[in-house]
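Hello Y.,

Per our agreement to keep a running log of every chain we model this quarter, I'm adding this entry. I've kept the format consistent with earlier entries: sequence first, then predicted structure.
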Amino acid sequence: MACVSLLLDKCQCVSGMRQSAILYAILSQQRDLKFSHHSCSCETRQTVCLRTPQVTCQTVSGVLVKTVSFMKNLPSFHHLPRADQLLLLESCWTPLFLLGLAQERVSFDVIETPGHSMLKRILLNGQGLVKTGKEERRQPTLADVQRVKMCLHKLWGLDLNPTEYAYLKGTILFNPDLPGLRTPDYIESLQREAQRVLHKVLMPLPSKDDSCFAQVLLTVSSLKTISADLITELFFRPVIGAADMSELLLEMLYNQSSTATIITANGLFV
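Predicted structure for the entry above:
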């Protein structure tokens, strides 16, 4: 299984070595990154990107297509008011996508961003911002990627089957607590039904306790710590360029063809 790697031979936070470490980072070439076994402020500043975007982006785009298809093919979702569909799509696509990555056992490598990006971060006071037109986007950091990896590893540890993943996705998709929903009571009933069936498939014998069900729900709650912006910048920005992710998701949801298409600036598509 591929892993995310630590990028500097010496930590930038070591007392007395900060200036040389920054200079080293600026002059150094790209290198693979691995999970570190300690927590350090360098990880919150060091920006990263996919090592093989051509391969990884094609894989994760396929997962995104399946994620949106899951929503649009559910009769209960299809019958919701369009406004509610849009709210659920906007709020739930990220955790559903992460569940898809876990279900498909997708792994990926990241590398340190080029040296000029480090210089940009220094000039921007270490905030890792990249300005595009009128918009400033925060680039993924090593710490961000570690959080994504930890969520995936926790999900893999649950060893769920496709049926369990399907009902787990239902419990996430049908979130009745979103402000502005027109049919929150109906959506709550859909969530309760998904939870009921999920509990049933996880705990087929009444004599068993609820520890497995509780562990699944607790693990899934960690997905809420991963933002849509992070997932977009890490996995989809190399594919969609400056396009708006929300608009692409809408196009995929309401595309009348059987297969949604993501067209990239460099000609790649799924």
